[in-house]
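1st attempt posting a full record on here, be nice pls
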Amino acid sequence: MKKFKRTEMEKHESDVQNIDEIMELTKKAGASISREEARNIYREQLDSEFYINDKYLVRKLTKTEDGYSITHLSIRRLDRGHAKDWREFQQIKNELLGEEVEAIELYPAESRLVDCANQFHLWALPEGEQFPFGFVTGAKSSSSATTENHTLVQRPHNK
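the predicted structure (as tokens):
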């Protein structure tokens, strides 16, 4: 996968260009939103940074509320196909936010579920902050291993 380059929103015909288009796309997806909600979505797009490489388009938006910052990465493949390669998402996070930034993918309550496209989302803490869960130390392997009770299967790293 190639490195990301910053790009402008207007260069991607598939990205919504106005409030009416946001409302129409939402309606076609079987949902409805108010004009004010569509306006807020559009404002977020204008405040976002866009990055592109040979495979993905990523929208990056950092919001600060009550003095606390969260960065949202909205990730989609250029061909609009399904994407779910953990290492590629880790590379996206590392390139656009930093290697020591922690991010999560949220599996929400059904009442907050947004599932209208092959698009994926990561939410990241500011650099230096960590989630109060997860592994304490890291470990990587480039090969498979077998012990008496376990078989670990891992593909090689492409670095």
